[in-house]
Amino acid sequence: CFFTFSTRLEDLRVKLENEGLVNISYVIVNHQETYSQRKFHLLKESVSDYITVYQQDEQQADVWTTLNGNKDDFLIYDRCGRLVYHLGLPYSFLSFQYVEESIKIAYCENKCGNCSYMEPEIDGICENITKKADEKLAEIEPKPTGQHSHHHNLHRHRQHH
């Protein structure tokens, strides 16, 4: 199971990087249970050096308990270290778009205004992501089929500064 997860996480990392979303830190926190501890080396080998695998010490407080989460959760922080999304099952399955979209939103939105961590090229990258998302929505938007059909607009709201 962890091999599939780590492969999908690596694929997502590469996809986002190819879209221009760089300088994102990815961390996998290994569970404290004995089975997970024994499989740590396999988990670490299943991801690239761009994804950190954190091994919890059996004597320390459990990271997941401290963060009010579970071992399969995704916690997505913005560049200022604020928790933006906490996704639990089933929203944390990488086969769905929730994790990817949450990372993109955390990456692109400026919730606190002018940010010293923002780089000039990020605005262009985020505009391209929004444009692609809007094009996808336009493709799936229902088309009128008869006299009594109603046209509903699907909107996606994002802030760009």
Automatic annotation (TrEMBL):
<feature type="compositionally biased region" description="Basic residues">
    <location>
        <begin position="148"/>
        <end position="161"/>
    </location>
</feature>
<keyword id="KW-0712">Selenocysteine</keyword>
<dbReference type="InterPro" id="IPR037941">
    <property type="entry name" value="SeP"/>
</dbReference>
<dbReference type="GO" id="GO:0001887">
    <property type="term" value="P:selenium compound metabolic process"/>
</dbReference>
<protein>
    <submittedName>
        <fullName>Selenoprotein P</fullName>
    </submittedName>
</protein>
<dbReference type="GO" id="GO:0008430">
    <property type="term" value="F:selenium binding"/>
</dbReference>
<keyword id="KW-0325">Glycoprotein</keyword>
<dbReference type="Pfam" id="PF04592">
    <property type="entry name" value="SelP_N"/>
</dbReference>
<feature type="region of interest" description="Disordered">
    <location>
        <begin position="141"/>
        <end position="161"/>
    </location>
</feature>
<dbReference type="InterPro" id="IPR007671">
    <property type="entry name" value="Selenoprotein-P_N"/>
</dbReference>
<keyword id="KW-0964">Secreted</keyword>
<keyword id="KW-0732">Signal</keyword>
<dbReference type="GO" id="GO:0005576">
    <property type="term" value="C:extracellular region"/>
</dbReference>
<feature type="domain" description="Selenoprotein P N-terminal">
    <location>
        <begin position="3"/>
        <end position="161"/>
    </location>
</feature>
